[in-house]
Design goal:
411 residues, alpha/beta, Rossmann fold, 4-stranded mixed β-sheet, 18 helices, 11 strands, 44% helix, globular, binds NADPH dihydro-nicotinamide-adenine-dinucleotide phosphate
Amino acid sequence: MSESFTRAAAIKLADNGARALSAPQRLTVLGATGSIGLSTLDLVSREPERFKVVALTAQSNAENLAKLAIAHRADIAVIGDERCLDDLKSYLAGTGIEAGAGEAALIEAAARPADCTMAAIVGAAGLKPTFAAARQGRRVALANKECLVSAGDVFLAAIRASGAELLPVDSEHSAALQSLAGAERVAVERIVLTASGGPFRSWPLEKLREARPEEALKHPNWSMGAKITIDSATLMNKGLELIEAYHLFPVGVDQLDAVIHPQSVVHCLVHYIDGSVIAQLGPPDMRTPIALALNWPERRVTPTARLDLVTIGSLTFEPVDEVRFRGPAIAKAALARGGSAPAILNAANEVAVAAFLGGRLGFLDIARTVERSLEAAETRGLIRATESLDDVLAADADGRELARHTIETQN
Ligand code: NDP
């Protein structure tokens, strides 16, 4: 490969040298009780001899965290909400597993020596622990989108400075990584991420206005946490993924696109200058990209259903309807605007999604809130350069405040 397919040359994504696994891989899972965390630990439980679990974390689910820590013989379990520490300690009593709580303890756990960290905390709450993991200079399997969306350049600088390896877990980016193998940068024309279209793909605008949280939470293909499931229904998830792709792969904003593919079989298509298109296909089961991120460059057996294209019959593709689903267009505009705009977008979206799930905001108002928050940030001169994690966290706080104000006054 004459030019690395990572925006940051020091990221060893393209390093195909097999890693000798003489000893078990020390693994930490941030967000162990979530959808990605549980899928990761499911794979670990199938090959326990390959992994030594160091730390597992959660936010408030003390009972499940303790069960997982005991089942996987973790060294330490950390809960974000300090009010849950007593529960966690009592569930772990007599096991010899350490218990910790609070933000500082999460960061300390993420900084404990590990060969690989699965970064699967949802939202901007994952920034500080994932940065702590990145600073170790080992492997970061990145599910948490916010490190790239809100903190893209700052996060990649941290990865580069420590010499860490960054492996994408998102199925689309894992697919892009595989479809770009062996490619030269100049040979790539476009990277197209697929989106299922979510549960409202065929709903008219009028009906979308009335969409309820319980309907939005019914994803047709994927089983995921609540936040990303709502983002899939609004298609903001695809917008966030376009920003992630921009940071992971050295292409311009105008070389990135999204297409609706309801079957969720093709995850990404890379278009080359000679007219070739290389795509990666797989079942809609996160254990496939998770296994690749944990074991890269090796492929290991996974228990996922095998693709049967004859049974599936046809694979279809449609354009994104930017009137009904504003997410990708808003995200691309924020990416083009640069600076703290993507961090403000992400924070405003987190607040809007929480308000929708809490019954305080309509479905279409999620994108409207994000767009208005970005407009307000521009008007007030709040879109600035982000050069450090503190700058990103300040932009995140601005985005939350603007979104709360927008929800109270404008929707
Ligand atoms: P879930 O909501 O299922 O799980 C989130 C995890 O983070 C849980 O362990 C939760 O603990 C913990 N957590 C929540 N809030 C905090 C907090 N404030 N501080 C510390 N820990 C916290 O999310 P997913 O597994 O679906 O997603 C995780 C990340 O991966 C997200 O960024 C998502 O966008 C990304 N992703 C997910 C995919 C999927 O298929 N699910 C696909 C691609 C990317 P507790 O259980 O105690 O609340």
